[in-house]
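HUMAN:
Just now I want nothing more than another pair of eyes on a protein record. I would be glad if you read both lines and explained how they fit together. I have put the entry right below:
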Amino acid sequence: MDLFINPSGELSIYRQIMRQITEAIAGGVLKPGDKLDSHRDLSEQLVIAPLTVKKAYDELEALGYIETQRGRGTFVCARLPRINPAEQETQLREAARKLLSQAYLAGLNYSAVEKLLKEADRDLTGLQKVKA
């Protein structure tokens, strides 16, 4: 899995790493048991400090998305964390309201938002639209 970092992005570098890994897990690009690059390897690929990668990995481990096995490496957890369904629905409802508010303020209609969501789904899941 390739990660891309924007040093001048709104999120800190370690948060960008966290976001991309969690999105890859959510989209099925990374599956339970998949091995992640070591801190050193990933930091060399991204040309960043190894401690930045370690911070991202430590937080992802604390959240229950990845686990480090001493002497073997870092892996996607076999059992991913579950959020209380009611709490999850509340969070998603709030995120949906925020998304629609931003879209409407930008002059987009619901159809345009739906199109953007479908594109984001393809990006997350790696599925490409098949043309008939």
The first helix runs from residue 13 to 26. Confidence is low (pLDDT under 50) at residues 128-132. Helices lie at 13-26, 39-46, 50-63, 85-105, 110-125.
